[in-house]
Structures are given as C-alpha cells and as structure tokens.
TrEMBL record:
Catalytic activity: 2 a phenolic donor + H2O2 = 2 a phenolic radical donor + 2 H2O
Cofactor(s) annotated in UniProt: heme b; Ca(2+)
Function (record text): Removal of H(2)O(2), oxidation of toxic reductants, biosynthesis and degradation of lignin, suberization, auxin catabolism, response to environmental stresses such as wounding, pathogen attack and oxidative stress. These functions might be dependent on each isozyme/isoform in each plant tissue.
Lineage of the species this protein comes from: Eukaryota, Viridiplantae, Streptophyta, Embryophyta, Tracheophyta
Keyword tags: Calcium, Disulfide bond, Heme, Hydrogen peroxide, Iron, Metal-binding, Oxidoreductase, Peroxidase, Secreted, Signal
Coiled-coil intervals, chain numbering: none
Native species: Acer saccharum
GO terms for MF: heme binding; lactoperoxidase activity; metal ion binding
Protein name listed in UniProt: Peroxidase
Binding site for Ca(2+) 1: 78, 81, 83, 85, 87, 99
Binding site for Ca(2+) 2: 206, 257, 260, 265
Compartments it resides in: Secreted
Residue positions binding heme b: 205
Site note Transition state stabilizer, residues: 73
Origin: domain of life: Eukaryota
Length: 341
C-alpha cells in the first residue's frame, strides 16, 4: 500500500465539524409488521413531492457537503429506534427529553435536520398537512445517496410520524464503534437483518465522518506493547494521530472512506484490507469469518454492493412503520401536533 495513498491521507481529513447530539430508540421487532406503503402515495395529494425533495436536497448538499452522510445516519438512527417514524426529529422540551438528546451523544449533524426542515417548509406551502416527516427523511436520504453516486432504489411512502420520542429508548438499539462482532450482529438481527445485510448497510461508511473519540483508543491506547493497533496502515495511523492531536474541543473528524470520501462507491470495502478504516467496528468486518466474505465480495463487485445496499435500505426504511391512527402527519417535524405528548 503506502505511497500511492500518501498525498490524499494528508489532504483529506483535516476537518472540524461541530457536534450536535442526537439519537434514537426502543426495541421493536419488525418481522411481522403489517404496514402498507405505496410508491404513488402522494401522487394525487402532493404531486410535486418528488421534485420538491430533489430540488431541496441538491441545493442543500451543494452548499453543505456533509448533508448527505449526516442524513443517511439520521435515517438509521430514526429507523433503528422505535421504527421509521420521525421520532429522531422531535426536539426536547421541559417535559420530555427526546431521542435526539440521548446521552450517548451520537453527534448527528445539524445539516441533516435542516434539510428535512427545509423540505417540510416548502411542502407545507404546496400541500399543507399531507406529507409526513418520516417520508421526507426516507425520500431525501435516497436522493442524497443517488446525488453522491450511489444506487437508486424505490422508496415506498405513507409512513405516519410517531407520537413518542424518548431519549431513554435509544441505548441498546444502535451499534457502537466499540462493540464486538457478536454485539453488532445482534443489534441488527433483532431488527431482522442478516450478517450480509448488515455488511451491505455498513457500506454507507463510504461517505461521512467519524469523530476522534470514536477511534482514539485504537491509535493511542491499543495495548501494552503497542499504543497503536498494528492493523492500521502505519501512514494512516500517523495521519490520524496528528489529526486527533489537534482535537482540543472534540470536533475533529476523519473521513470514514479516506480515499473517496464524498463519493458513494465501494471504496470503503476496498480500504478495509489496506488498514484504512478508522473505526474498529469497520476493520472488524474483514477479520470476522461471519462478515469477511461479504466485505470481500462488495470490494470486488460494486454492482453487487449497490444491489444489496438498495435492498437493505428499503428494509431499513420500512422498519416498524406507523400507518393509520398509529401516527400523524406532523405540522412541524420537531414538534408533535399535540404538544402535550
Ligand atoms: C455496526 C454498525 C455500525 C457502527 C458501529 C457505526 C458507527 C458509526 C460511528 C461511530 C460513526 C461516527 C459518528 C461520529 O463520530 O460523528 C458513524 C458514522 C456514520 N454512519 Fe455508521 N455505524 C454502523 C452502521 C451504519 C449503517 C448501517 C449506516 C447506514 C445505513 C451507517 C451510516 C453512517 C454514516 C452515513 C455516517 C457518517 C455520518 C456523518 O458524516 O455525519 N452506519 N457510524
Ligand atoms: C456528550 O455528552 C457528555 C455527557 O452528557 C458530555 O460531557 C460531552 O461533552 C458530550 N460530548 C459532545 C461531543 O457533545
Ligand atoms: C463503548 O463505549 C461506551 C461509551 O464510552 C460505553 O458506555 C460502553 O460500555 C462501551 N461498550 C463496550 C461494548 O465496550
Ligand atoms: C475547535 O477546534 C478547531 C481546531 O482547533 C477549531 O477550528 C474550531 O473552531 C473549534 N471549535 C470550537 C467550537 O471551539
Ligand atoms: C457482480 O454482481 C452482479 C450483480 O449481482 C452480477 O450480475 C455480476 O455478474 C457480478 N460481476 C462479476 C464480475 O462477478
């Protein structure tokens, strides 16, 4: 490996982005969920839905390039905790600490919340009270993935927004970078995902960032004999150290895919055997026999990755969806219609 990557390594990750914490919650098994979503859900009630979402994400992403990755992660955190119901978007108030303010601060970027808010604002002018925030998030995520070069997949619509958002429901439903493979597989298995689907979805780390706190232990406190995990490419490890040495306020981040950080491709999987993953949870994919074969397959065949990823995203986007009277169409994405909730 080595020299071919060197210039990029030093150029690409001197980046500081502010934290804004958020997350999502509880343990719902979707296997028998009886939802009804459809591709033409807004065809008559909001015919410009597709166009408005597409225009808004393009405008936002071209001004704020961190939006795409942030929004993908926002969807993950919405759907893994109490289903894809926009509960991650709810703001806390004096009576309720909402999911996005869960203690495990998962640093969801403000730009991701902002793009949903913008789309909602335009839609409320065009077709008031019709489009749910959870549908906006699902559609915007797909469009942003496509904009970055990733696969197109269809997004069935008709989700209602949830009526509950509680910070305490988050823990245990989201994967963490310090989990064992057993724990990671379990988190996804509970929601009905196979190891293969989990690996495909983790390919989302082909875009976006991770904060130094998420991989500091691997570069500074790995073991007694060596402070740095020897499986990290040595040049990359040096670059990560010099990045995180500047991390005085917890805002420094490294790209999850250091070679093509803004392009949605299969480079993330190609990076793994080169030791170019910052997160331990990413590197583990090529160490564990339950995931290694899938990671190698996706590294070798981007078409296969895109197909599996698209299917995985459809499944993620349908987790415990609320329909009918189980939810509402929020007027504002950050507040329940009945503020008592
Ligand atoms: C075992 C599985 C996973 C673990 C342990 C994990 C962990 C993480 C961590 C620690 C970060 C960095 C957060 C930060 O420091 O700001 C991150 C970022 C991200 N994750 Fe994951 N993740 C996993 C699976 C997924 C899946 C399934 C998706 C989507 C389908 C996803 C999408 C993202 C994206 C897009 C980012 C970048 C966010 C940004 O740049 O704002 N992750 N993930
Ligand atoms: C995360 O939350 C903890 C405790 O709530 C706080 O001490 C810490 O500063 C927060 N970190 C970031 C980066 O927001
Ligand atoms: C991972 O880190 C979090 C936060 O620092 C900690 O609470 C948790 O116990 C750790 N989990 C594992 C599996 O080590
Ligand atoms: C955090 O530190 C970085 C790098 O030193 C700096 O660019 C950034 O403005 C700081 N952010 C805050 C919120 O202090
Ligand atoms: C890559 O995957 C696609 C989709 O599964 C398949 O049709 C194609 O034959 C594969 N290409 C190679 C070179 O194996």
């Amino acid at each position: 490996m080595g020299s071919r990557f060197t210039p990029l390594l030093f150029l690409l990750f001197m980046i500081s982005i502010p934290f804004s914490s958020s997350s999502k919650s509880d343990n719902i098994n979707n296997k028998n969920n009886n939802y009804k979503l459809s591709l033409d859900y807004y065809k008559r009630t909001c015919p410009d839905f597709d166009r408005i979402v597409r225009e808004q994400i393009q405008d936002k992403q071209s001004k704020q390039p961190t939006t795409a990755a942030g929004t993908v992660r926002l969807l993950l955190h919405d759907c893994m905790v109490s289903g894809c119901d926009g509960s991650i978007l709810i703001a806390s108030n004096s009576f309720n600490k909402a999911e996005r303010d869960a203690d495990i601060n998962l640093s969801l970027p403000g730009d991701a919340f902002d793009v949903v808010t913008r789309i909602k604002t335009i839609l409320e002018l065009s077709c008031p009270g019709v489009v749910s925030c959870s549908d906006i998030l699902a559609e915007a995520t797909r469009d942003l993935i496509v904009m970055q070069g990733g696969p197109f997949y269809t997004v069935p619509l008709g989700r209602k927004d949830g009526l509950v958002s509680k910070a305490e429901t988050v823990e245990g439903n989201l994967p963490r970078s310090n989990m064992s493979m057993d724990q990671m597989l379990k988190i996804f298995e509970v929601k009905g995902f196979s190891a293969r689907e989990m690996v495909a979805l983790m390919g989302a780390h082909t875009i976006g960032f991770a904060h130094c706190t998420e991989f500091k232990d691997r570069i500074y406190r790995y073991g007694k004999k060596t402070p740095t995990d020897p499986e990290i490419n040595p040049k990359y490890a040096e670059a990560l150290k010099s990045l995180c040495a500047k991390d005085t306020n917890g805002t420094m981040s490294a790209f999850n895919d250091v070679l093509t950080p803004n392009k949605f491709d299969n480079m993330y999987f190609k990076n793994l055997p080169r030791g170019l993953a910052a997160l331990a949870s990413d590197h583990m994919l090529i160490k564990d026999p339950r995931t290694k074969g899938f990671a190698e397959w996706f590294a070798a065949n981007q078409t296969a990755f895109f197909e599996e990823f698209g299917r995985g995203m459809q499944k993620l986007g349908a987790l415990n969806v609320k329909t009918g009277n189980d939810g509402e169409v929020r007027r504002r994405c950050d507040t329940f219609n009945d503020v008592q909730n």
